[in-house]
Amino acid sequence: MVKIREFQEKDQDEAYAIWKHGMSVDLTEYWTDWIFNLFHVRVILLTLPLVVVYYGYGTPPVGILYAMVPSGLFIGFFRFMIYWNLNGYVASRTDMLNIKKHHGKRFLVAEGDDGEILGTIVYVEETKISTFKGRKLGKNTWEMFSMSVKESARRLGIANKMLAELEKRAKKSKTERIVFTASTPQVPAVKFYKKCGYDFEHEAFPTLGRSIFAAIFADCFLKFCRMDIVKFQKEL
Questions:
Q1: DSSP secondary-structure letter at 196?
Q2: Using one digit for the tens of pLDDT, what is the confidence trace for 169-212?
Q3: What is the DSSP string of 134-162?
Q4: Which of 62, 128, 170, 193 could be joined to 198 by an S-S link, Cβ 3.0–4.6 Å?
């Protein structure tokens, strides 16, 4: 039996580990699958060796290995960009290092029969999302984020239970709607939220990076990879 309850200080290490795994390991897999399944990325990977061969740098037998170098560098670059973006985000979330201080009772966990923490979800009452589909949102809005389920406990309905508990608490507080965001590479999560009755719209990623150069570089990367933010909303 899984119980959804408010965060306790003893949950810090387990809750942080689940969240970090979701934000780095899981998202890395989603982003990697998304990028290397894009048609234009596959075309580039196949074309680069042919270009090398065409200019005479990839003659057999040893030259074939040289022909694969540009594609290997291309793959390495994109894997680095995935790592740089996602780990930069994790590093920026210093609030997760002290959940009790920054989130308190707004941070909910899914607890198994043996006391093991199986999932996390948190909300804020002052949202950064102010509009949805061109309409300004009212003040009675909660924003959800950091929902993660432990890898060994997935496909057990835990995400459904956590989201249902959040909606229950929101209704009790007379909250009018819940909003949150995901990214297009998070295909399973996007399908899940749609199935739960959340309306959605796409918008461009916010500016990333600590400097102007890093922000421009990250923005070009995200556009090349055709990644968007998926904004969700549900009226209660």
A1: T
A2: 999 999 999 999 999 999 999 999 999 999 999 998 876 555 67
A3: TEE--SSEEEEEEEEE-GGGTTSSHHHHH
A4: 193
What does the alpha-carbon distance between residue 221 and residue 1 come to, in Å, rounded to a whole number?
44
**Which residue in this structure is represented by tokens 């930069």?**
88
Q: What is the amino acid identity at position 112?
A: G
Q: What is the pLDDT of residues 97-110, one digit of tens each?
A: 999 999 999 999 99
* Beta-carbon count within 10 A of 45 CB: 17
- Report the distance separating Cα 226 and Cα 228, nearest Å: 7
- Using DSSP's 3-state secondary structure scheme, residue 113 falls into coil
Using alpha carbons, select from 173, 117, 110, 168 the residue that is nearest to residue 140: 173
CB atoms within 10 A of CB 233: 19
DSSP 8-state symbol, 8: -
The token duo for 183 is 């990214």
- Alpha-carbon gap, residue 138 to 229, rounded angstroms: 21
| Interatomic CA distance for residues 10 and 197, integer angstroms | 34
| Interstrand relation of 117-124 and 107-111 (parallel, antiparallel or unpaired) | antiparallel
63: confidence class by pLDDT, cuts 50, 70, 90: low
